[in-house]
Amino acid sequence: MAKDNLGMDTSDVDRWLGIPLGGGQFKDPIAINDIRRWAQAMQNPNPLYFDEAYAAESVHGELLAPQSFTVNTTVGHGATPAIQGTIPGTHMLFGGDEWWFFGPRIRPGDKMHSERMLFDYTVKQTKFAGPTMFSRGDTTYINQRGEIVAKQRSTSIRYFANEAAARLDESQKEDPTWSDEELAAVEKQKFEYIQSFLDLGHDERLFVKQGDALPTGVIGPHTVQSLTTEWRAYTMTVWGATYDEGLSSTNRAGWLPEMSRDKEGAKLDPGNADGLYKGPSRGHVQPRYAQLIGMPRSYGYGASMGAWVLDYLANWAGEHGFVVHTDVKYRSPAHTGDLTYLKGTVTQVGEHRESGARRAEIDVVMMNQRGEVMAKGPATVEWGGVGRS
């Protein structure tokens, strides 16, 4: 690939293409409260993932992790293989995730390992930041038995922070405000959505046809508190929870000094390198740093958007269902003060050729209260196939 793409020098990226990568791994097995904390942070009140008595009556017979939890069993949200090579003065946003799930479920006591590789990249001109790299990297999730649980192909959007900051829409710096009546209406929508999957309970969703609309999911309004709760549910953010193995250049990606981790300082105070207190994620909860990298105000995590989609699909499918594939592109993050709505439409139903499992193809759309599309893409849900082990 060209070393200079539209003014962006990608020569250091090229040397990382197609080689096995290292990075962070977890020291300890998954604890049951890791799963409960995840469901709480993702605002997913499905008792399968926090109430052991309810889960014991399910088809699984025990409390297990939602499929969305998979991204919480690696370090870096699965995005690190797509952030390789140094490009000074850049930052990154999540551009999307494609997931393939192969059947083994994640349970308390499992110990996961990640294998990573930078897949490819391209550079395009964007209104957001001028020359912008769209790089894709793969993370394979493997349990302690050597079973491949899932594969994630994550897209990172790498761009020059000063270009994005110069193009910032000043009118978007203030959070929208909500009246008590409006918030009450939002809570009613949430209860109706939650009731939709509680009503299904332990039964199998038997009747699915083309054109069916999934219930509308509602999350928010997002706040600094909710974003912080999400971040701290990622087990990788716990001090001392991980170790590094192999080679990776993610920490030398070219971050601005204000968005870099202070590895030396972390030897005295781990907060200097934990990402949120100091590091590339501080813009999520501090508007000053959000604006430094081209975001108008505090904003959410791409990995959480992917988790919301997986939870939304799995809750609708029920405990007998299993999400086998999604390919969701992210257009805009969730900002503080905004609501996030999830909608889905069944586009096709049929059977898997080999297993005979029932399948539904679904188009998923995520949008804010203004109707602006935040993410969208196709997904495949299955009943009677993989996903029971």
- Helix and strand run: EEHEEHHEEEEHHEHEHHEEEE
User: So how many helices?
Assistant: 8
**Count of strand segments:** 14
Into which percent range does the helicity of residues fall?
10-25%
Supply the number of structural domains: 1
Morphology call: globular
The oligomerization state is single chain
Mean pLDDT: 96
Q: Biggest sheet: strands, sense, closure? A: 10 strands, antiparallel
CATH H-tier superfamily: Hotdog Thioesterase
End-to-end C-alpha gap: 43 Å
Q: What topology emerges from the helices and strands here?
A:
Elements: E1 4-5, E2 8-9, H1 11-14, E3 20-21, E4 23-26, H2 32-41, H3 52-56, E5 90-101, E6 113-126, E7 130-142, E8 148-160, H4 161-166, H5 180-200, E9 217-219, H6 224-233, E10 242-245, H7 287-292, H8 302-317, E11 321-330, E12 340-351, E13 358-368, E14 373-383
Antiparallel strand pairs: 1-2, 3-6, 4-10, 5-8, 5-11, 6-7, 7-8, 9-12, 11-14, 12-13, 13-14
